[in-house]
Amino acid sequence: MGEMEALRKEADNLKDQITEARKVVQDTTLQEAVAGTALVGRVQLKTRKTLRGHLAKIYAMHWGTDTKFCVSASQDGKLIVWDTLTTNKVNAIPLKSSWVMTCAYAPSGNMVACGGLDNMCSIYNLKGKDGNVKVMRELAAHTGYLSCCRFLSDSEIITSSGDCTCVLWDIETGTEKTIFAGHLGDCMSLAVSPDFKMFISGACDFTAKLWDIREATCRQTFSGHESDINAIGFFPNGNAVITGSDDATCKLYDLRADQELVTYQDSGIMCGVTSLAPSLSGRLLLAGYDDFNVNIWDMLKAERVGVLAGHDNRVSCIGVSSDGMACCTGSWDSFLKIWN
Amino acid sequence: MARDMSDIDILKMELEQLKKEVSTPREPVSKTSKDIMEWCEAASATDLLITGVPDDKNPYKPEKGGCIIT
User: Fold this and answer.
1) What ipTM, to 2 d.p.?
2) Sheet harboring A187-192: ordered strands across?
3) Taking a contact as any Cβ pair under 8 Å apart, which residues of chain B between 36 and 65 contact chain A?
4) pTM for this structure?
């Protein structure tokens, strides 16, 4: 038997062991556990604001922390920081590269970041002395597109890339602190745990991985999706992970039981999930799809309880404000909408 | 990384990871799903997208009789 064959056999053996170990603790299902819980009532959210200003497809948006400001990125080559209450543009930042795929707001509110087909993550200081917003750092080392980025603080940011890795950067020095390798396909999305100790990544190898930031290791790997994972998020208490995929489903994975708990799917939904965000309690899962809609799921009962229909093109990004009061959707139709 | 690695190196990397993951501590689903359910139900009471925001407390709802011109 060749070395490849032997290794493959060993890997399959270990995968079987893991599958068995997961079955052993599967003494019930989430569906059984919530059998006595009533379905959450029909959720009908209205568009309260429409943020107009981008001139091309919006690819990403991110709420600030403890604020009604958010940042959006469009392939018109601009990052816009919005005051969602007034719909005013606080900052309109022209980008060197218009092929932007992601953006992020630092928890402090002092910085925003973005990146895309330029393979770099550019950090912008919003609170510069002269009032002008300038590029503070260009984090370059990825050999593939930047699909997602999230700040840990003003001095650290995590990026995911089409080069199949995620990287933890020191913003001050502009260098890579840690490279998280393991995915076998483009990393499409990442999310940081509520306690900032872990992060999760979703990739085109159909898996989601949980990483320990300081130990620099992959703790757990979750499979089950039948296509690329485009969107990923933490359940608000940090003990579960939600993924959205091109296979038209979302899944909830339990970190402590190390397995999938439920799949959010409907025979009527045949298009990919582009984005997702849980509500503050985690009871609602808002997911954006290629068919221009956002479906709202009761996360415990795994049933659809609402739809946000208002965009004229794909919903590419979605986020819930940190106080849980409003949801923002961004679309290829160039508009952002605020709903509650 | 995976793009630059040979097939055999990729397999070795996978194997190393699987060996670690075999010994992941796993708690029973009965306990973990109960915890998620309880956490969720407790937090739902103050989840504004579920309870709704009364018009007079909704910063996004324009005041009656006025409009914001931007």
Assistant:
1) 0.90
2) A187-192, A198-203, A208-212, A217-222
3) 36-37, 39-44, 46-50, 52-53, 58-61
4) 0.95
